[in-house]
């Protein structure tokens, strides 16, 4: 049996007194894409952000339960959050390149590590841009501002920036919702090719996207994980009425 790379156990999360995650237990497996679906406000992004402690940036947040990576609770006080976010990288809904060149965007994390030669950084930048399926678009403008690229190209550069530091897990929060269908399709194909090497968790409102690319799907409603199963099962023969209602467009 393959072991999960991330395992959440009875995670409750409060913003102030408001409970937005109500006891989430969920395993994420290597080399799989897991989609988190559900109506607006159901807690998908909050759960995603709890997997690399992005929620801790706010001080009125309380988390109970545990999120284990390789058997260690990332909420233990000894966790180094910088290392954690290298292992568990994140891509946001709006492409957010730094106002630097394409090259500097992708090299940024590597330069902070201060353990690579210039030649190694050049190689990793190229490999990461290739893996993110944007090399052909940018190879002749590596030293131009990333902000001059299209939204779809910027998003792929942001994915290359995450790949450059070799994470184990990639979290994506609605990464294609601001993009046109062609750019979205490129990102979907890229994610499918990346799952040989990475564990991928994606929040999406696009049911077609979830069914095209994910191996497993979790359906969230009002802070609860209503159903979590193989994507085929969720879309073809959901066990819960709420899941069926949501995927067939009866609410949300
Ligand atoms: N920073 C915050 N401070 C206070 N409440 C928040 C914060 N972020 C989210 N919430 C609340 O937590 C609940 C869950 O939000 P979350 O963003 O996780 O939902 P979601 O399912 O990802 O929604 P969407 O699909 O609209 O992004 C919502 O009621 C939201 O208003």
UniProtKB/TrEMBL annotation:
Residues 6-247 form the ABC transporter domain. PROSITE patterns: ABC_TRANSPORTER_1, ABC_TRANSPORTER_2. GO terms for molecular function: ATP binding. Keywords: ATP-binding, Nucleotide-binding, Phosphate transport, Transport. InterPro entries: AAA+_ATPase (IPR003593), ABC_transporter-like_ATP-bd (IPR003439), ABC_transporter-like_CS (IPR017871), P-loop_NTPase (IPR027417), PstB-like (IPR005670). It comes from the Bacteria. Signal peptide: none annotated. This is Phosphate ABC transporter ATP-binding protein PstB. It comes from Holzapfeliella saturejae. The lineage of its organism: Bacteria, Bacillati, Bacillota, Bacilli, Lactobacillales.
């Amino acid at each position: 049996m393959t072991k999960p790379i991330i395992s959440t156990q009875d995670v409750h999360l409060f913003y102030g007194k408001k409970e937005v995650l109500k006891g989430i237990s969920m395993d994420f497996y290597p080399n799989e894409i897991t989609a988190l679906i559900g109506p607006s406000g159901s807690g998908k992004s909050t759960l995603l952000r709890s997997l690399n402690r992005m929620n801790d940036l706010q001080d009125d947040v309380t988390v109970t339960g545990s999120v284990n990576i390789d058997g260690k609770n990332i909420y233990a006080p000894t966790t180094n959050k910088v290392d954690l976010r290298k292992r568990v990288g994140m891509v946001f809904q709006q492409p957010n390149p730094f106002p630097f060149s394409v090259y500097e965007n992708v090299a940024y994390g590597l330069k902070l590590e201060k353990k690579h030669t210039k030649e190694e950084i050049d190689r990793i930048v190229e490999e990461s841009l290739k893996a993110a399926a944007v090399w052909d678009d940018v190879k002749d403008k590596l030293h131009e501002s990333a902000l001059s690229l299209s939204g779809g190209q910027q998003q792929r550069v942001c994915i290359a920036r995450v790949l450059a530091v070799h994470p184990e897990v990639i979290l994506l929060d609605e990464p294609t919702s601001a993009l046109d269908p062609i750019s979205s399709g490129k990102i979907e194909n890229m994610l499918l090719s990346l799952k040989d090497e990475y564990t991928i968790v994606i929040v999406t409102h696009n049911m077609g996207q979830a069914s095209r690319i994910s191996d497993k799907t979790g359906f969230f409603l009002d802070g609860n994980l209503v159903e979590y199963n193989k994507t085929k099962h969720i879309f073809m023969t959901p066990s819960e009425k709420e899941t069926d209602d949501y995927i067939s467009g009866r609410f949300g």
